[in-house]
Write a structure and sequence with these properties.
The chain is of the alpha/beta class. It has 3 domains: 308 residues, Glycoside hydrolase, family 3, N-terminal domain (TIM Barrel, Alpha-Beta Barrel), CATH 3.20.20; 195 residues, Rossmann fold (3-Layer(aba) Sandwich); 118 residues, Immunoglobulins (Immunoglobulin-like, Sandwich), CATH 2.60.40. The chain contains 19 helices and 29 strands. It has a 6-stranded mixed sheet. The radius of gyration is 28 Å and the shape is globular. It binds alpha-D-glucopyranose.
Length: 733
């Protein structure tokens, strides 16, 4: 009897202790498989809670599930650094004092480095800053193709070539997401101009869509495993891209198996029906419908808010559509805020400054250097004149949503003084742009003639002149929400440069911009450096290159045309760019950038992939490891690269593919491989470029599939798209 009683007591104690230990629900158990956690959480949520996940609750956040302890989603701009905190429902800053960030170089600079390893470093660094600021979605990188030099947002993107953009976007995403922050590749898709961006309907062939405009997004999804993607404002074939059935359901979610979250651009949603059915998951925006009216509870009136809930309750919308959206958003939350091994971030750390400086150093492009005017070692000259507003103007602010409130920014002038000493630097503004905010442009109150006169006076008495100009982030310059009005440099810089040349032949032009500009003085100046928006370390990185501490190794990620009409998008007139305010027609089709210049034999001012060095490189004849290859094979092209100069340096060898006789129209050449090689002076190395034959495929519109033609191909080895060092022919069986 006693034994039985003891046994019963034992059982009771065990069961009570079990009850006491609340069994952790699966979705909260960080060690459970992701999909199990998603399903478990979904099974416990009400319809209202699921709908609440699918739309904004504030300017940059959306609801979690408070009742279940599932945290909110906090997104933030941008591709170059973490935007300052804003007020709950305003664009304006909240005035916090702990959100001064590190500004990294603009993505045109990263692309110009042609160095995927720097892309990984970039992603990890900016991911750490987002993590530290408790953002779990970084609204970047942008990968829209550089179709026209007038596009206000080119500075945020990775250039004109889909292969370069694809190779550079993957490590950036992997870097960001390795810190437990979701990247959000944008703007999907065909957001290649700012003029009428909110509604312009893009007309482009399937071939150009698949071969030029989608590859970087496809790489981001299939190789970068990106956890979210942002729909673009414009329309494609009559549907807004934030709820476009072809782009989001057919291509992104079915063909590419995207399992992440489709987020709208802010205010990019236009109706509930399409938002529910066409693949949109999370509606972000500004006011009620993301565009116009504001009421006391604007977020509950979003298209994916009450109207969606009402439609579900009335049976108008299948609950499966809601569950799919909720699943994707839960998956993003479990991959970020609620993931097991989420690293900690850091903010404005010395490592981030070093990363920014390195990316800037490797992205700067040396376009011209006669009479070895560069580099300028400290002590070589007594008087160095620094002229131009971009030597002293902040270039991390402005430009739209990528604008940053930074902990510090070293201007070109500050960097130069730190290196050469203030006794050897004499500065004059030369020209002044007006104060400008996103959307407004004002004229400077300073007298332009007196600025020029003062600058000429300084230049006259200097040993060498460093002109630091270019574009800036003013409206109608490199800025979101508007395109440039011309290819020309603004603020009468051309006239100033001519005036400086009259009194001093030793003029180094330093262009800071995110776009190509016309250079009427190109034959008169001995040296030209293409700098980008270089971020917090701008002045240091520029000085590193100018002084020779760093040997420039950047290559242009887009072509510089001699005149606007030489550019493909501008060749076909207004309907091709910017369109007629309703439609725009990409009449150049697949012939974008160098694909146009090299097929039509139009000489660019500076070609895609071009960039000089302080040393020189010699290429041996290339050889292929096989003369014949199957369509599923790979060709290895090898050659010997020699640093034939006196300075250590890096060269990016590029491999282009050409098919002389093709059944379809093809570009004269297409980039299919590149490799950046660091070599000490006098050293040689064998370089091998692997080219999968599958990358020779063209998109067959009739069959709606990729197709590799058999027959003869020519592989062109180049130091730029126009400087071909050697060729090999191969037969594809
Ligand atoms: C802007 C931009 C987008 C940005 C978003 C949030 O309109 O198009 O790139 O991330 O809205 O600021």
């Amino acid at each position: 009897m006693i034994k039985k009683l003891l046994f019963i007591v034992l059982i009771l104690r065990i069961s009570s202790s079990l009850q006491a230990q609340q069994v952790t629900p699966v979705y909260l158990d960080v060690n459970k498989p992701l999909e199990e956690r998603v399903e478990n959480a979904l099974s416990q949520m009400t319809t209202e809670e699921k709908v609440a996940l699918c739309h904004a609750q504030s300017k940059f956040s959306s609801k979690g599930v408070p009742r279940l302890g599932i945290p909110e989603v906090w997104t933030d701009d941008g591709p170059h650094g973490i935007r300052e905190e804003v007020l709950w429902d305003e664009w304006g800053g909240a005035g916090w004092t702990n959100d001064y960030c590190t500004a990294f170089p603009a993505l045109t600079c990263l692309a110009a480095s042609f160095n995927p390893e720097l892309s990984l470093l970039y992603g990890k660094s900016i991911g750490e800053e987002a993590r530290y600021r408790n953002k779990n979605v970084l609204l970047g990188p942008g990968v829209n193709i550089y179709r026209t030099p007038l596009n206000g947002r080119n500075f945020e993107f990775l250039g004109e070539d889909p292969y370069l953009a694809s190779r550079m976007v993957i490590p950036y995403i992997q870097g960001v997401q390795s810190i437990g922050v979701a990247a959000c590749v944008k703007h999907f898709a065909l957001n290649n101009q700012e003029t009428w961006r909110g509604h312009i309907n893009v007309n482009v062939s399937d071939r150009a869509l698949y071969e030029i405009y989608l590859p970087a997004f496809k790489a981001a999804v299939q190789e970068g495993k990106v956890w979210s993607i942002m729909g673009s404002y414009n329309q494609f074939r009559g549907e807004h891209c934030c709820h476009n059935n072809l782009l989001l359901n057919n291509i992104l979610k079915q063909e590419w198996n995207f399992d992440g979250v489709v987020i709208t651009d802010w205010g990019g949603t236009h109706n509930t029906d399409q938002a529910v059915k066409n693949g949109l998951d999370l509606e972000m925006g500004t006011y009620t419908n993301g565009l116009t009216s504001r009421s006391k509870l604007p977020y509950s009136e979003y298209y994916l808010a009450n109207p969606f809930l009402k439609g579900i309750k009335e049976g108008k919308y299948d609950i499966a559509l809601l569950n799919d959206k909720a699943r994707r958003i839960l998956r993003l939350i479990f991959r970020t805020t609620m993931s097991a091994n989420r690293p900690f971030g850091r903010f404005v750390s010395p490592e981030h400054s070093e990363a920014g400086r390195k990316i800037a150093q490797e992205g700067i492009v040396l376009l011209k250097n006669e009479k070895q005017l560069l580099p300028i070692p400290a002590g070589k000259y007594n008087k160095i004149a620094v002229i131009g507003e971009n030597a002293v103007r902040s270039l991390v602010i402005g430009g739209g949503s990528s604008s940053l409130k930074v902990a510090y920014e070293v201007s070109p002038l500050e960097g130069l003084i730190a290196k050469y000493g203030k006794d050897h630097i004499v500065q004059s503004l030369g020209y002044a742009s007006g104060p400008s905010m996103y959307g407004r442009e004002a004229k400077s109150k300073l007298n332009a003639d007196s600025l020029v006169a003062a600058a000429v006076d300084v230049a006259k008495n200097a040993d060498v002149v460093l002109f630091v100009g270019g574009l800036n982030k003013n409206h109608f310059q490199d800025c979101e929400g508007g395109d440039r009005k011309s290819l020309d440099l603004p603020f009468d810089q051309d006239k100033l440069i001519e005036a400086l040349l009259k009194v001093n032949k030793n003029v180094v032009i330093v262009m800071l911009s995110g776009n190509a500009v016309a250079m009427p003085w190109v034959d008169k100046v001995p040296a030209i450096v293409q700098g980008w928006y270089l971020g917090s370390e701008a002045g240091n990185a520029l000085t590193d290159v100018i002084s020779g501490d760093v040997n420039p190794s950047g290559k242009l990620p887009f072509s510089f045309p001699k005149k606007l009409e030489d550019n493909a998008a501008h060749f076909f007139g207004k309907l091709s760019y910017p369109g007629d305010s309703v439609n725009v027609y990409y009449k150049e089709d697949i012939l974008v950038g160098y694909r146009w210049f090299d097929t039509k034999n139009i000489a660019p001012l500076f070609p895609f992939g071009y960039g000089l060095s302080y040393t020189s490189f010699a290429y041996s004849k290339p050889t292929a490891d096989k003369a014949e290859v199957n369509s599923d094979g790979t060709v290895k092209v090898s050659f010997t690269l020699t640093n034939s100069g006196k300075t250590d340096g890096a060269e990016t060898a590029q491999l282009y593919v050409s098919k002389p006789k093709s059944a379809v129209t093809r570009a004269a050449k297409e980039l299919k491989a590149f490799k950046k090689v660091f070599l000490k002076a006098g050293k040689s190395t064998t370089v091998t470029l692997d080219v999968p034959v599958s990358s020779f495929a063209f998109y067959n519109e009739a069959k709606h599939s990729w197709e590799v033609e058999s027959g003869n191909y020519t592989l062109l080895l180049g130091s730029s798209s126009r400087d071909i060092k050697g060729k090999v022919n191969i037969q594809v069986k």
